[in-house]
Write a structure and sequence with these properties.
With 156 residues, this protein is mostly beta strands. Helices cover 14% and strands 48% of the residues. Strands 1, 2, 3, 4, 5, 6, 7, 8 and 9 form a 9-stranded mixed sheet that branches. The protein is globular and about 40 Å long.
């Protein structure tokens, strides 16, 4: 199973999303993130990805969710989700991502992954979750990605 991380800088009732320019989710809004490299912890991976994608140094983060994604073509992904509470530097655009701030209660779900509307608002309001999502084709190689079913569990 491939391991990934995703992080959402939050401040003053707003969340920073990136408009993805390339790779998985190109053209959609998402959090910063990517693959966990060999020998790297999820915590180290989110710090590296935040620096690479938007040029911030993560000072304080909080783990909030574990997400699992599967599709009909054998894709299996495990994703650790973090809220980035404190950082150094101003988020800036890169070759991969254009950062934009949104009010937490008014996210552009129509321009995000379909699963985000199921879980993201919950972690932004303080919940911890474990969730499983089944898509037809996550990578969009053969079909337009579409969520088929999901299961969400609240963690204490």
């Amino acid at each position: 199973m491939r391991r990934y991380v995703i992080g959402y800088p939050v401040r003053d009732g707003k969340v920073l999303l990136i408009h993805k320019k390339r790779g998985l989710g190109r053209g959609l809004y998402n959090g910063v993130g990517g693959k966990v490299e060999e020998g790297e912890s999820p915590e180290e991976a989110i710090e590296r990805e935040a620096m690479e994608e938007i040029g911030i140094e993560v000072l304080r983060k909080e783990w909030v969710a574990k997400l699992y994604f599967y599709d009909h073509y054998g894709t299996a992904m495990e994703v650790d989700v973090f809220l980035i509470k404190e950082w150094k530097g101003e988020p800036k655009e890169s070759d991969e991502a254009k950062p934009e701030w949104f009010p937490m209660d008014n996210l552009p779900y129509d321009r995000m992954w379909e699963d985000d509307r199921v879980w993201l608002w919950r972690v932004l309001r303080g919940e911890r979750l474990k969730a499983t999502f089944h898509f037809n084709d996550i990578w969009g190689k053969y079909e337009t990605p579409r969520m088929l079913k999901c299961e969400v569990q609240h963690l204490e």
